[in-house]
Amino acid sequence: MHLCANQCLYLQLRYSFLLSISTYNKMWAEAQEALNGLLQREIEDKSLKPQKDRITVFQTLATFYIKYVQIFCNLETVYDQIVHPQKRLVIRQVLEGVMGRILELKNEMVELENSEFHYFDDILQDLKLSPEHIEIPIPRYFIKEKVKVLREREKILAQILMNSGLQDIKPVSIPGALVIQISERARQGRLRATFMKQIYLEEKRERQARLQGVKGPNLDAAALHIQKVWRGFTQWKKTVKMREEEMIFLGMNPPPQFQRISASVARAQNVETKRCEVQGRHETEYEKALVSIKTHLREIEGPDIKESLQDQIRQWFIECWHITGKFPDYPNEEEGGSTAIFSQKTPDQEEEEGWKMAPSNFLPIMEEGNNQYKDIWQNRDERWNFLQEYDPELIKEEKRKEVEEEIRVQVDELMRQELKNLKLAVDREKDKKRKKGKKGGKKVSAAKDGKTIDSLYKELVEEGLLIKPKTVKLSDYVGEYSYLGTTLRQVDIEPMPSLTDVRQLIALYGILPLGSQAVHEKAPLVKALLLAGPTGVGKKMLVHALCTETGANLFNLSASNIAGKYPGKSGLQMMLHMVFKVAKQLQPSVIWIGDAEKTFYKKVPKSEKEMEPKRLKKNLPKILKSLKAEDRVLVVGTTQRPFDADLRPFCKVYKKILLIPRPDYASRFVLWKHIILQNGGAVTKSLNISCLAKVSDGFTQGHIVYAVQTVLSERRLRQMTNKPLTAAEFLSSLARQDPVYKEEEETYKVNLRYATSARRIA
C-alpha cells in the first residue's frame, strides 16, 4: 500500500513536471512573439523623421520601456524554469539583450527629462496595466549560478573573522534540559489550577442549591436551551467566517498570517525543486557532450574540412594570378586569415541629422537571438525529446564551425608557406622576402606587489575594509507607487519620488549591471551612485540589498572606517590599490562610502580634523576614471547632509544622485503592516493601520521599525492572543522620536536640483 502511494505521488510529480515544460515553452513563444513585434517597431521608427515634440518622444520611449519590462519578466521566469540546456542559451542571450535595452531606454528618458525619476501612470492606464507590471524583476540566475562560489567565500570570510577575533559573539542559550524542566513545571501548575477551580465551582453550586432548596434540574429544558445557544453560536461563527473571507477577497482585510500549505502548492514546490535538479543534470550532460562531440567531429570530419579549405585557397591563388599577373598577399591572422579572403564588407550608412533614438548596443543581440528562435526553435518538432535533454544535431552544427576555425588556422600556416614557395618559384629574380611580424597585442602585466589575491583578501577583512553584507532582499524595501506623478508634472509641480521609484532605480543602476557581465559591458556605464536622504530612510539597507541580490563583495571606505589605517600618501595609495585590485578580481563588488559628503567637505569641522575625512578627495576621481566597462565595480555613497559638500567636485564623482524621501501615506500604510508582521505581530480589526499611517506623517522607516520593536516585546507577543494590538500602543514610542519636517525635505529637493545642474555644467 505504501509503495503504491509512493508510485502515485511519483507519477503525479512527473505529470506536473511535463505539463510545466509545455507551459513554459508556450510562455517563451509568447514572449518571443511580443519581442519580434517590438523589434519591427524599432526598425520602422528608425526610418521616420526626427521628432520635435518632447512629450511625444517621451511617450514613445516610455511605451517601449514598459513593453520591454513585460517581456523581461516573462523571459526571466522562462529562463529560470526551462530545463533544455540549448534553449536556455538562446533565452539567456535574448534576456541579457532585453535587460540592456531597458537600461538604454532609461538613459534616453533621463537625458530627455533631466530627471532620474519618471512617471508612467497615464500610459499604464492607456495600456490597462497596473504598477506591478513594470516592477523590475531580479534575475534569479545572478545568485543560482554561483551558489557554490558564494558559499565558499562566506566560509572563508567567517574563518578569517573568527581567527582575528572579529566574529560577533553569539548569545548564550539556555540548556535544553532546563527549558524542558521549566515548561513541564508550568504545565503541571496549570493543570493543578484548573482542577482546583473545578472543585471550587462545584462546591459553590452545591452550597447555593442547599441554601435555596432548589429541586433537581429540568433536563429537557436544559437540553433545549443548550441546543438553542449552540445553534446560534455555530451560525454566528459561520457568518463571521463568510464576512471575513469576503473582506479578504475585496482586499479590505489582510489575509491570515499563517496558512496551511495546500496539497497543490506543496506539489508545485516539489515540481520546482525537481526542475532545478533536472536543470543542473542536463547542464552537466550538455557540457560533457560539447567536448565529446567536438572531439568526434575533429577526428571524422577534420581531414575533409582541411582538404576543402586548401582547395578553396589554391583556387583563389590561381584566380588572382590570372587577373593581376601575380600572386596575392596572404592576410595575416589579425585580419582574419583566409576568412578575410571570402568576406564582403558593406559600406557604412550615413546618419540623418536631427533627434532620433540613440543607436543601441543591444538591438543586434536581441535580433540575433530572435532569429535563432525563429530559425531553430519556433517550428521544431520535439516529440522525440520528451525529457528536454540536449539535441546532439545542434551541438554538431555549432562545434563544426569551431572545428573549421581551428583547422583554418592550421591551414593558413600551411598555405602561407605554400604561397611563399610559389612566389619564390615564379619571381626568383626579385628575391623578395616579406618579413611578417605580429603587431603588439600583449597586455603589459600589472606590476606585482608580491601578494596573492587570497592574502590581500585576508588583510582587507582583518583591517575591516572588506565586510560581510547583511542578507537583505530588494523586495524587503517596501513602498507604494506614485499615482499622481504625471498629473503633477503637467502643472509644473515636481513630485516627490516614491519608495517604489527608488527601488526601481537601484535595480536598474545597480543590480542588473552588476549581475550580468554582458549587460555591464555594453549598457550606459554607471561607475558611482549617491543615495541622499534623511536618517532612517533605508540608504544602508539598499547598499546591502545590492550585495545580496548580486552576490557582490562589500568594501567599506567610509571616512570614519579608514581613519588611522594605512597612514600617509603612500599608505593611502597602497590601500586603494589593494581594495580595487581585489574588487576587480572578485567582481562584482560594491565600494561603500558612508557620509560621502565628508570626503568633499567645504570646511572640515575641528572635531573631525584628526579623522582626515578628505583623504580620498584627490584619488577617488582618478580611480573611477581607471574603471573600465568590463570591471563590475560600483562605488555607492550614502549621505544625509549633501549640502555640506563642495558640490562641483562632489557631482563630478557621483554622476547618478538619487534622493530617497520620507515615505508618503500609501507607503506608510504598507510599511506599518509589513513591519508589524515581520516582528511577530498580528494585524486584526482592533489595529487601525490607516490611523497609524496618518499620525506617522514625517517619520521614516527607521522610526517605524523602532516603534514596532519597542512595543512588540516578548511579553507583549505572548499576550497578543487574548489582547490584540491597538494603534494607541505605538504612539508613545513614536512620539519620543524627532520626525523629518517638510522644510528639511524641501532642502534635499532644492540641493538635488542644484546638484543636477552643477553636474551638467561639470
Question: What this model shows, in words?
Answer:
- The protein has helices at residues 2-46, 54-81, 85-113, 121-126, 141-144, 147-163, 176-212, 219-250, 263-300, 302-324, 339-342, 363-377, 392-426, 453-462, 485-490, 499-515, 517-522, 539-550, 559-562, 568-585, 619-626, 647-653, 665-678, 689-695, 701-711, 714-719, 728-735, 742-761; strands at 466-467, 528-532, 553-556, 589-594, 633-639, 656-659.
- Strands 1-3-4-5-2-6 form a six-stranded mixed beta sheet, with helices on both faces.
- It has 28 helices and six strands.
- Helix 1 crosses helix 9.
| Helix proportion | 55-70%
Strand content: under 5%
Uncertain runs with pLDDT below 50, 5 residues or more? 344-354, 432-448
Sequence of strands across the biggest β-sheet = 1-3-4-5-2-6
Number of continuous helical runs: 28
Shape: globular
Short structural description:
By secondary structure, the protein is mainly α.
Tags for this entry?
globular; 762 residues; 6 strands; six-stranded mixed β-sheet
Topology record:
Elements: H1 2-46, H2 54-81, H3 85-113, H4 121-126, H5 141-144, H6 147-163, H7 176-212, H8 219-250, H9 263-300, H10 302-324, H11 339-342, H12 363-377, H13 392-426, H14 453-462, E1 466-467, H15 485-490, H16 499-515, H17 517-522, E2 528-532, H18 539-550, E3 553-556, H19 559-562, H20 568-585, E4 589-594, H21 619-626, E5 633-639, H22 647-653, E6 656-659, H23 665-678, H24 689-695, H25 701-711, H26 714-719, H27 728-735, H28 742-761
Parallel strand pairs: 2-5, 2-6, 3-4, 4-5
Antiparallel strand pairs: 1-3
